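Standup notes
- DV: blocked on the single-chain target, sequence here:
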Amino acid sequence: MDEKGFVEGVRRYMSQLREEKRYSSAKSYQDALNSFIKYSGTENISYSDINKANLHRYEAYLLEKGCMCNTVSTYMRRIRCVYNKAIEDGDAEYIPGLFQGVFTGVESKRKKSLSLENQHKLMTVKVESEVLRETQLVVCLLFQYAGMSFVDFAHLKERNIKNGILDYNRQKTGTLNTHFHPRDGILQFRAILEITGRPQAIYSLF
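- DV (later): unblocked, structure below
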């Protein structure tokens, strides 16, 4: 098998993700690849190097470097995905339970949500700066759009809003999302554009 097979396999898959405009996912695979190359000390990594003993050593290496468990899991799942694709293509050997014993789950210890009191304060507190006011309005909109990520918000176009319906594809996954566009959202959208000096760009949406 090609001594660089694994590295080339990751890069091919990243190219596919970029063609699908899944740039965040491609970046995640690039991070995992960079980490595994640094651990290996070479780009000459064959699929035979992806074995149980090496995966356990890699996990220990990441933990020793201070990586969080979720980072370890992300890197392992990226490696597993590319390895599984290689099995399908006949480039790698199927090894039962190859990734058993290394962490591929999700660890959640910290509470990430804001209390209702803090949410209300964040959205209503009076701010003096126009920049902060714009940021506050954006936060309100993202909340009304069912927790839309900022990168999705930043990529909205005129064609995404028609007849009070907001349709957009997530930048990370390409998944289609549909929401009713609230009246308050229209007003906040207009307020944002008034602050930034681009009001005509928003009026054409409604």
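- Follow-up: The chain has a mean pLDDT of 83.
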